[in-house]
Design brief:
3 domains, six-stranded mixed β-sheet, single chain, about 350 residues, D-Maltodextrin-Binding Protein, domain 2, five-stranded mixed β-sheet, alpha/beta
């Protein structure tokens, strides 16, 4: 039996000289008249046409758009998000404002994006791990990484590098692997975020070595202790350590991405340094809530990619050693699917769980 509980109590249908309302409940009128009342109640919901949907997309944005960034101000995600938002504001003639929602490995911000109205007026800045690692690292998330978001575009790759204190007697990945294997647990490494931890643990798994982990809250204190020699190794975004590397205060061993970074092509990859296929990447992108109408999504995709490709954005990102990688939505989705499956296997093999 079909439930009609969704019909509004105030809806009424005029027929045969009288007004029929839900109170009639089919008892005072025939089945045909009852069906006519139902259709009349449903007509407003059925009235949307492709032309109307197109008109809505053309009208977007008619008010301020917010971009939720699940990081505090000042980091690479915040800086790139603000650069894209500013360019979108210039292009659209409507404000696109950044709203920082940091906390719990981006979970706080991702939940806010998932629960936002799917109308195109909330965009979400994401890093790959939120969609590809967190579903395995956490038993329960307040969002469904597979169902609650629609991809817009990848925006950038923020390369990660294994860096060591100059006092550690290694100059390349092969020497590092041999050293931590010959000196188990004697090297102290700092992990300021989950991507760094997984990269290091994955390296130890394939090299057969062992190190001692010291957990930190973020990259900044990790880098400071590495500079002081209280740590011997970490995996950090290039943007945070490049000046120290060039000053000789730490040594870059290899990047963890599968391919060399355009920003620092002189640093080899682990994959080409004796660890074939090694790939732990830190990429950034943009999404919208999954129920956002397709026509609105198409407009968002057009405007986000238009802004991200602007020369002004590239110029602002150049000093940060960020590789811009603007993509199509289907390319982003394919990467998410492939990495989610691969990281699920790797994380389970490493035995890492965060709750």
């Amino acid at each position: 039996m079909i439930s009609l509980a969704f019909l509004p109590k105030t809806t009424a249908f005029a027929g045969f000289g009288r007004i029929f309302t839900p109170r009639d409940t089919g008892q005072r009128c025939g089945a045909g008249l009852w069906m006519a009342w139902v259709l009349a109640a449903l007509l407003p919901a059925l009235a949307s046409t492709p032309a109307q949907s197109q008109a809505q997309s053309q009208a977007w944005p008619s008010r301020t758009v917010r971009l939720i960034v699940p990081f505090p101000p000042g980091g690479s995600a915040d800086l790139l998000g603000r650069a894209v938002a500013q360019k979108m504001t210039e292009n659209l003639g409507q404000s696109v404002v950044v709203e920082n929602r940091p906390g719990v490995d981006t979970i706080v911000g991702m939940e806010a994006i998932a629960r936002a109205a799917p109308d195109g007026y909330t965009l979400g800045y994401v890093i790959g791990s939120a969609l590809t690692m967190n579903p395995t690292l956490y038993s329960k998330l307040p969002y469904d990484a597979q169902k609650d978001f629609t991809p817009v575009s990848m925006l950038a790759s923020v390369p990660l590098a294994i860096v060591v204190h100059p006092g550690l007697p290694v100059n390349n990945a092969q020497e590092l692997g041999a050293y931590v294997k010959a000196n188990p647990d004697k090297v102290f490494y700092g992990s300021g975020n989950i991507i760094s931890k997984i990269a290091i643990e994955q390296f130890l798994r394939v090299s057969g070595g062992r190190m001692t982990e010291i957990a930190y809250k973020g990259s900044s204190p990790t880098i400071q202790d590495l500079l002081r020699g209280e740590l011997q190794l970490s995996v950090e975004p290039i943007v945070g350590i490049l000046s120290h590397v060039r000053a000789g205060k730490m040594r870059a061993i290899a990047v963890t991405n599968l391919q060399r970074s355009n920003a620092v092509p002189e640093i080899p990859t682990l994959a080409e340094s004796g660890f074939p296929g090694f790939d732990v990447a830190n990429w950034h992108g943009m999404v919208v809530p999954s129920a956002t109408p397709r026509e609105i999504v198409a407009r968002v995709v057009t405007e986000v990619t238009r802004a991200a490709r602007a020369t002004e954005v590239a110029a602002r990102m150049a000093p940060l050693s960020i590789d811009l990688i603007v993509s199509r939505p289907e390319e982003m989705q394919a990467r998410v699917n492939a990495e989610r499956e691969r990281y699920a296997r790797d994380i389970r093999a490493l035995g890492i769980k965060l709750d």
